[in-house]
Request: fold
Amino acid sequence: MDTYKYDNPTITEDPHPSRRLRVLARFFSVLFHPLLIGAYVFAFLIYIHPAAFEGFDERTKNLRMLSMLLFTVFFPAFSLFLAWRLKLVKSLSLNNRSDRLVGFLVSMFFYFWASYVFWNLPDTPPVAAHFVLGIFIAVCGAWMCTIFYKISIHAVAMGGLMTFFILFGIQDPFVSGLYLTLPVLIAGIVCSSRFMLGAHNRFEMVTGFFVGVIGQCLAWLF
Reply:
């Protein structure tokens, strides 16, 4: 018998928040789903930051954005959908260990592919290549943690998001207080939402956050 359990009677939805707050918590959990964070950051670098993709024509920018969406959103999501339809995973929410391990393996493959492609595409800004490599490292770390407990994937994404913008801001001549504080605000909202929904305990959230931090820090050493 598999003694690994995700069921924890101490982790239940907090009865105190109102129904409206729980709806908001679910909304922010979906809006900032871990699969979407990489695409959000790439969109910022390509279309908002004044210099990250400076010198690229609009067609090239759009193709880089499309590549990021395919590698880190569409392919992983579609592969998990196929795995669910083929009954290789029990639920798209990936609530048990076997499902989560499959989900992380699928994501690891596509994030490795994305990292390899962006590192080898000519003229790819180093900041973009570092970020994607950091995602891949964080997913590998989260997969290893999932062998033992239900790490928070949202917290992993938020740790990576905050760390990336801090590291980027240190060397960015166009650094702005807005895009340094906004990731902190988003991380606070998302992590609070996961607590409010009773999705994770403190240990799962904190370790998830630090896995994301370590992933980006290691990527910036290359």
Q: What stands out?
A: Residues 1-15 have pLDDT under 50 and may be disordered. The first helix runs from residue 19 to 31. Residues 120 and 183 are 28 Å apart (CA to CA).
